[in-house]
Amino acid sequence: MTTDSTLRFGAQTDEVTSLLRIVNLVRTGEATTRPEIGKVTGLGRGVVSQRVDQAIQIGFLGDGEFGASSGGRAPRTLRFRAEQGRIVICALGAAHMRVGVAALDGDILEHTHRTWDIAQGPEKTIDAVMSLIDDVLKKDPKVPVWGVAVGLPGPVDFASGQPVAPPIMPGWNAYDVRTPFEERFNAPVWVDNDSNLLALGERARRRDSLADLIYCKIGSGVGAGLLSKGRIHRGANGAAGDIGHVRVSDSDVQCRCGKTGCLEAVAGGWALVRDAEQAIHEGTNSSLGPLVKKGALSLEEITLAAQAGDALAIALIQKSARVAGETISALVNMFNPGVIVIGGAMGSAGEVFLAEVRQRVYELSLPLATRDLTITLSVNDEREPLRGGAELAREQLFDVTFPRWFAEGRPSPERAAVPA
């Protein structure tokens, strides 16, 4: 039998490997009774019982209900103890922050949000996030946090967890986002681009672990999360999917990043607000006029006006969709996804936006790349990025770093936060 010290220091014996596999079989639902585990793993009844007892002793598994009988005594099912830890998710946007807490199976237990300007800087933002986290953890203060996922509206070096020259986040470049959360919760922390969290949330919602999917977030800014066979494609440095700063042909509009002609500067929400204000100042008649005079115009107001039939709002939304569709078509040709999901505030414009995107993608993409392609709107659920953050943490905890910490019964920053 493997000693505690052998397990604790991570020696990959056959016993350790089989124990890990059994826990994950139960966790994923692939095998939930001892006979099923024996059938899947090829291990004998005695070995299976020994490994299951070990997993129960460490705290990962527990006895469940009795399963269906195949002629003899009904077998006792096993369950993964998802209640023994919590995952904290912080999804930060340009103008808001959302915080949630999930069980280890990804179920969102509590969540809250507030408006917030990300340009206030990292220190003030993280202080505000911690306050929201305190609120959502109040109901179960004694349940330990096993992991934290943070989504940011800008480029992130996933290995270091640091933002890299984010255009709309002054003061955030190379900021150490991980350490404040690690020190607060004594748990591993993963930081990623918000579009990647949304793509993972869509994977969870669809229950498609092998999805080839692009999630295009088009709000104040523009970005994309790329899923290849269910895995996030981040690229060499975490910049994959940053389509907001792809150059648009025949455009010399100044972007917030300092360059000219970026997709975001033509099709992003802040660009539409700019163009609407300019058009109204030049005399265009629109229901948006009073909002412009009050200085209260927003992308959300433009999408609502488009749905109500305002000609200026419709024209602006369609222009954004055409330009975005051209860039998305390049992704389709290169990446060949099965699904494209349009999310973000622009997605709330509905078919006014979606129809134009579809038309441009099918016009400009290869027939083979669009043969089985579905282009659809997101479900527009504010919990989407929270589910995605829970998926990110669960993936890292149980698929990537599990062998390094499982014998201790719960992860630590030292054993689980370092990329494999």
TrEMBL record:
It comes from the Bacteria. InterPro entries: ATPase_NBD (IPR043129), ROK (IPR000600), ROK_cs (IPR049874), WH-like_DNA-bd_sf (IPR036388), WH_DNA-bd_sf (IPR036390). Belongs to the ROK (NagC/XylR) family. This is Putative NagC family transcriptional regulator.
